[in-house]
Design a protein that fits this description.
Layout (H helix, E strand, L loop, with lengths): L1 E7 L2 E6 L6 H8 L10 E6 L6 E7 L4 E2 L3 H13 L10 E3 L2 E10 L2 E8 L20 E3 L2 E8 L1 E7 L8 H9 L9 E9 L2 E8 L3 E3 L3 H13 L6 E6 L2 E7 L5 E5 L2 E7 L2
Parallel strand pairs: 2-3, 4-6, 11-12, 13-15
Antiparallel strand pairs: 1-2, 1-18, 3-4, 4-5, 6-7, 7-8, 8-17, 9-10, 10-11, 12-13, 13-14, 15-16, 16-17
The protein binds the ligand N[C@@H](CCC[C@H](N)C(=O)O)C(=O)O.
């Protein structure tokens, strides 16, 4: 099988065009670190009847996610470079609806990808979260807030990011019964109204180096709570995701999308 490994700020993916009979099994096999290619998930290229192309995201544990922010930037660059989509502005179908990336080309090179991520929702039924107030509730002993940004996200504000219990509190919150479909968990340290640092524990993938839907969702939550401006740099471990929140509620994410290698699996 021909594969292409890519990453968006260290959140890494295996892009596959060939139809897989068992995408969940393939993800569990190929995504294993050290024993196989290793990745946070698979990105499957499929035809679409409503957009230029369709992206499916299969997490490392075999579960299928509705959307992936870092993934869609890599995917947009891939389908453009392979000539599957001929324009740098494109529409990509996902299980969360159609998202619209635009390649930012400088000196003939793709410098970044800017994505209209749609309108994040703070409604409890949309996330979904079984909390009276999704903007302020308690889970596993932590004050939290939740948002749907393609996929469910929960934000925990902390002053001590390095000691935040990402690997212990993360999985407990991910699977807490308050979240009927699970949740991604973001530990966020607010530096000022335009800058925050974040570390993410992902549903179906565990600790990852970056999360695009998480960065956009948390920026929208911070803005909604009056803590941040409408443009904010979300610093993840390997770089920065720039988030802009438009007056109509749309969140725009800009960040890198890079190749690692291309090859054949046995
Ligand atoms: N890393 C992603 C989110 C991928 C989906 C997530 N694991 C889930 O199941 O919700 C991103 O960059 O947005």
């Amino acid at each position: 099988m021909h594969i292409t490994k890519m990453h968006g700020l260290g959140n890494d993916f295996i892009v596959i065009e060939e139809r897989a009979a068992d995408p969940a099994g393939l993800a569990r096999g190929l995504c294993r670190r050290r024993l196989s290619v290793g990745a946070d998930g698979l990105l499957l290229v499929e035809p679409s009847e409503i957009a230029d192309v369709k992206m499916r995201i299969i997490n490392a544990d075999g579960s299928e996610a509705e959307m992936c922010g870092n993934g869609v930037r890599c995917f947009a660059r891939y389908v453009y470079d392979k000539g599957i989509v001929k324009t740098p502005d494109m529409a990509i179908e996902t299980l969360a609806g159609v998202v619209r990336p635009r390649l930012v080309v400088e000196n003939g090179e793709v410098a970044a990808v800017r994505v209209d991520m749609g309108v994040p929702s703070f409604a409890a039924a949309d996330v979904p979260v079984l909390a009276d107030d999704p903007l302020d509730f308690e889970v596993c002993g932590q004050r939290a807030a939740s948002v749907l940004c393609g996929v469910p996200h929960t934000l925990v504000l902390t002053d001590e990011l390095e000691t935040a219990e990402i690997g212990t509190a993360g999985p407990r919150i991910e699977k807490d019964p308050l979240f009927p479909r699970g949740t991604n968990v973001n530990f966020v340290r607010l530096i000022d109204r335009h800058t925050a640092q974040m570390r993410t524990w992902e549903r179906g993938a565990g600790r990852t180096l970056a999360c695009g839907t998480g960065a956009a969702g948390c920026a929208a939550l911070l803005h909604k709570k009056g803590l941040a401006a409408n443009e904010i740099d979300m610093h993840v471990q390997a770089g920065v995701l720039h988030i802009e929140l438009a007056p109509d509620g749309h969140a725009f994410m800009t960040g890198a999308a890079a190749y690692v290698f291309e090859g054949e699996t046995f």
